[in-house]
Amino acid sequence: MKPLILLTLFSYLILMQCVSIRNLNPSASKIRNIRRHRLVPSCPSYSDVDLVNQTFPFKVDFNSSSSTKTSAKTDGYGNIISMNIINEEYLPLSISCFTRLHSLHVEGTRFPTFYFHVPMFVRHLSSSLTDLVIKNTSFKELPDTIREFRRLETLVITSADLHSVPDSIGELSSLKILQLFDNSLSAIPSTIIKTSCLTTFDISNNKKLQSIQTLNGHPHLMTLVADNCSIEDIPMDLPQLVNLYMRNNKIHDVSKIYTLGNGTDERKNFDFRKNSIRYLTPFIRRVKNLCYLNLDYNKLDVLPMDIYEVKTLKHLWIRKNNFENETINAIKMNMVNTRIWA
Question: Where would one find the signal peptide in this protein (predicted)?
Fold first, then answer.
C-alpha cells in the first residue's frame, strides 16, 4: 500500500509542476515551503528504471546514451548513472531519487530553479553529480544552494538567459570546467577565484559583461573564452593561462599581457581580433612561449620592435588594421620565421 501512496504523491507533484512551475518565482516562499516540506515524499522502493517508467511523463531510451535524445544509462546494479532529458516539457522532480546519478543533461526542457530548494533533490544529487548541463531553457538565476554540489567537475548553463551567479560558486571545490556562454550575465562573482581546480572557463556571448577582473590571480585557469562581450580590459596575473580568446570585445589596452601564463612553459595562443587595440606593449617579449597571436581587426598602425625578439611566435595575424604597406614589409622582413597574415 505504501508504494501506491508514494506514487500518488509523486503524480501529484508532477501535476503541480505542469500547472504552476512556469509562474513560480523566488518571492513565492509560501508555495516553496509547502512543496519543500509537505509534498516531497521519501523515495519509493522501486528500481531507478521502474521509477522512471512509473513517474516520468515521457519515454526514456535505456538502450542509448545519446546526448541528442532523451536517454539514460545504468550501471551493473540497475542504478541510473547518466541521463539526458532533451526537448521534453519539464524535468520530473522524481529525479531526486537517483542517488547514483553522475551526469545530468537537460536541454530544451523546463528545469524549475525551486528544485534546488528541495532537500531531497539537493541531498541525493549533490552526493553523486559530477556533470550538470542545462541548455536552451529559461534558468535566470543559479540558486545559492549550488554550494552543496561539491562533487561537480563540469557545470554548463548555456542559452538559458542566466542573469546572475551566486557567490557560493566559489565553494565548488572540484569544479574544473565552467561554461556560461550565451546568457545575460553582467558580472562574475569575486569568489570565482576560490574555485582552485577550475581550468576552463567559457563566458562568451554575454553582451552585458564589461569586466572579468574578478578572475585576476586565479591560480590554475588554463583556458579562458570570453568572445562577443563588452569587456574593456584583459585579465591579469593568470600564471597557468595557455589559451585566451577575447574576440569582438571593446579591449583597447593589453599592456598587462606579460602577466598571463608566466607560470608555465606551455605554448600560448592569444586571440584579440575585432577589438580597439591601438598599441601593443613592448612587454610582449616577456610572454613565455607565445606561439599564436591574432590582432586582426584592431586599430594598430605600428608594432613594437620588441616583437622581433619573440622567437617562439609561429603565427601572427594583423589584417584589417591601420598599417602602411611599408610597415608591413618591415615586419615580414624582421620576422622571417613567423607566418604573418597582413
Answer: 1-18
